[in-house]
Design brief:
single chain; 2-enoyl-CoA Hydratase, Chain A, domain 1
């Protein structure tokens, strides 16, 4: 399949999926479809033994393309939107019984953060940043972030990130356990490629079953969490604060929130 918004390169059992869309690798429906298809191919292809997920350019992913939201008018069907997009991506990443390495090459926010946190191993460049993002436009957590972020950094730190929307830089992400290694920007992909090659040479089926066990032990409630996030996002999407957040984002100004 020819992809429009991402690239797939396969070398010796390692499939590297690179998000490659203008506007900071922000997701529209095309990129969602491309990523789901690429993950499906990696799952079904017996030659693929390890997957790398990264971004082209300076960003891993800024999350949802806000322009797509604005095109849907004032009443966005967030519950259905999430089921069609990020819930499907998060479940595809976790159901892929092959190791997935997140090469976090730059800033990531919102749904991009959720996708990054759904990978099995995360190595980052020094330019990486991790931003909650949702609250900046008057929305609640989605893309599994309400589960994965507190699991990784603890409830208090997750709450701090969510309520202040302050970015966590690469070194702080390492200290808090969001990533396990940090490299200079120009060394990240070389180091990730070496790790992927090592993993691809191991017993793939056993690694896949181990991932299934980890899912059962730590993420058994993920489908229910994703469904509940979609329910809450529908509520948040109907608030005046969300409308103000969207307007402030597009006008590049601070939001004037009223709590309504």
């Amino acid at each position: 399949m020819g992809y429009r918004d991402l690239r797939v390169d396969q070398v010796e059992g390692v499939s590297t999926i690179t998000l490659d869309r203008p506007k900071a690798n922000a997701f529209n429906f095309g990129l969602v479809e491309d990523l789901l298809h690429a993950l499906g191919e990696a799952k079904s292809d017996p030659v693929v033994r390890c997957v790398i997920l990264t971004g082209a350019g300076r960003f891993f992913s800024s999350g949802q393309d806000i322009a797509v939201i604005l095109e849907q008018g004032e009443s966005v069907p967030y519950r259905e939107h999430l089921r069609r997009t990020y819930n499907a991506i998060i479940l595809a990443l976790r159901d892929l019984e092959k190791p997935v390495i997140g090469a976090i090459n730059g800033p990531t926010a919102g749904a991009g953060l959720g996708i990054a946190l759904a990978t099995d191993i995360r190595w980052a460049s020094e330019s990486a940043q991790f931003v909650f993002g949702f609250s900046e436009i008057g929305l609640a957590a989605d893309s599994g972030v309400s589960l994965t972020l507190p699991q990784l950094v603890g409830l208090a730190k997750a709450s701090e990130m969510a309520f202040t929307n302050e970015a966590l830089d690469a070194q702080d992400a390492l200290r808090w356990g969001l990533v396990t290694r940090v490299f200079p920007d120009d060394e990240l992909m070389r180091e990730v490629d070496l790790l992927a090659a090592r993993i691809a040479a191991r017993a793939t089926r056993a690694l896949g079953l181990t991932k299934r066990a980890f899912n059962r032990a730590y993420l058994s409630n993920l489908p229910a969490v994703l469904d509940y996030e979609a329910h809450l996002q529908q509520i948040a999407g109907e608030t005046l604060d969300h409308q103000e957040g969207l307007a402030a984002f597009m006008e590049k100004r601070p939001g004037q929130f009223t709590g309504r």
